[in-house]
Amino acid sequence: MAPPKPPSRLVVLVSGSGTNLQALLDNLADAEAPGAEAPPYEIVAVGADRRGIAGLERAERAGVPTFVERVQDHNTRDDWDRSLAEAVAAYEPDLVVSAGFMKIVGKHFLARFGGRFVNTHPALLPSFPGAHGVRDALAYGVKATGCTVHFVDDGVDTGPIIAQGVVEVRDADTEETLHERIKDVERRLLVDVVGRLARDGYRIEGRKVYVGE
């Protein structure tokens, strides 16, 4: 009988409240219950581009090491990108997860972690990419939107799609109410996707992602 596969090592990147990070941490805590299946991943570090944010506090409460790489602490954006890549690489991750990380990484980071860097977006890509996906979908008048979990490439929300979740748009929705319902779906989808990638493995062929095949 083959020995059990060790859990995949995750580095999670955050910029704010860290609710997606908390969903991943809660899933790990649930796995510690008697009789629960061992989690397929472990969070080995949480990184941020800002100090004093709730996401870092969540990591510290969970006993997870943290680090901060601020753009303003480097001479150029290229230097920051290289330093971020080095900081993440120090933890030898199998996957890197952007959990509300609001910085666009560059060539140095993608050279290290391309094909292993997972992001979420609050719209059904390729529709409504960019920083205002919820607002843009609502303004366009769509009847359904949602969230996308995808791998990051050198474009803006253009990487291969792993999974999507659909959210109905209601007549009375504001950007805030719609975004809250999307976030609920997004957190569940991210936990499911990260678990499947870690447990079952995956391959990327062109724009298609095959999990466990």
TrEMBL record:
Functional pathway: Purine metabolism; IMP biosynthesis via de novo pathway; N(2)-formyl-N(1)-(5-phospho-D-ribosyl)glycinamide from N(1)-(5-phospho-D-ribosyl)glycinamide (10-formyl THF route): step 1/1
Record keyword Transferase present: yes
One Gene Ontology molecular-function label: phosphoribosylglycinamide formyltransferase activity
CDD domains per UniProt: FMT_core_GART
One Pfam short name: Formyl_trans_N
Enzyme class, spelled out: transferase
Binding-site positions, (6R)-10-formyltetrahydrofolate: 77, 102-105, 119
Positions annotated to bind N(1)-(5-phospho-beta-D-ribosyl)glycinamide: 18-20
Gene Ontology CC terms, in alphabetical order: cytosol
Active site (catalytic residues): 121
Site (Raises pKa of active site His): 157
Record-linked HAMAP family: PurN
Keyword tags: Purine biosynthesis, Transferase
InterPro entries named in the record: Formyl_transf_N, Formyl_transf_N_sf, GART, GART_AS
Name of the molecule in the record: Phosphoribosylglycinamide formyltransferase
GO terms for biological process, alphabetical: 'de novo' IMP biosynthetic process
